[in-house]
Amino acid sequence: MTVSDPAPTYTYVADAGLADRLRREATARLRRPLPLGILLVFGLVLGILASLITNAASLPTYRGKVVLIGVVWGLVWVAAVVVLTAVLVVPVSGVVIRRRVARDYPQGSRTEVELGDEALVLVRPTGTRTLPYRKIARVRPIGPWLTIAVRGRLIAELLPKGLLPDAALELIRARARGAAPAAVPWDGVPTRQMVVPAGWATHLAAVHTRASVTSRRFLVRTGLAAVVSVVLALVLGPAWLAAAPVLALVSVATTFVQTRNSLSAVLPSGSVASTEVLADRFVSRNAGGTREIPFDQVRSVEVHGDVVFLMLASTRGRMLIARALIPDDLLDRLRR
Length: 336
Prior knowledge:
Blueprint: E1 9-13, H1 18-30, H2 33-54, H3 59-104, E2 110-115, E3 119-124, E4 127-132, E5 136-142, E6 145-150, E7 157-160, H4 166-176, E8 192-195, H5 200-213, H6 216-236, H7 243-266, E9 272-277, E10 281-286, E11 289-294, E12 298-304, E13 307-312, E14 318-322, H8 328-335
Antiparallel strand pairs: 1-2, 2-3, 3-4, 5-6, 6-7, 8-9, 9-10, 10-11, 12-13, 13-14
């Protein structure tokens, strides 16, 4: 018999200056060079494209003036966004932050975060909220906050940054991806198992890359890049026509290399991979660990030769698993 350890609990005591400190950190984040640089580049590109479209008939004669007009309008747009942010967005966000902090984190109040076996439990003065791991879509820091996005809720949960240590964050992300609780051992006999052949990670990466290249998302991005490269070629010269193909090749190469590297770590040659089918889920094991996949989390299934792609509701992207590890009855059940 296995006895689970007590669930780890983290406590935060709110102080009087929390709202002002969070507001100052958020305002300082807006003044960083990177957001301003991105805004400037986006404004210039937007202004130049708008000027090219509006003054297309004048391009052959007044190409330089058309581009200059676009630059001016882009700078005007950037200045308007900066002024609007300083005059309206910053004061309004300050009021929103103060009200939310006053409600959720009044001075001297205690906030407890418990990492249970199946859910994250938040205990605050406003009440107790339970967040099942399988419904957590994203956990990431944004400025002074730690945001926890939950499927089916428009507003993310906000926790002060630093309340949870890195180990706790990794545990939450792993459980959200379907990993089994560490305190629950799996003693069953694998339904299917295989010895990972040499070059298996490279083969999986090639199949994944080939499927990605034919996806609608990749085709839309490539089409947009082609439109931009054509516009740049009209203004700056025909050499810019190569921009879209080069970007597409870089994207394909990056997808292949990243997929191969990540799979090589969990599926090294000669290791053993297995699956075990239970009543409401199946368990996948490999050198990277154990992963639990509830049947109700499988959105769709695609078979590409000797590889099965599983699209899960709890994670973005695909889970790749060998077709030899999926029995026919399990594949039919997943498809339903």
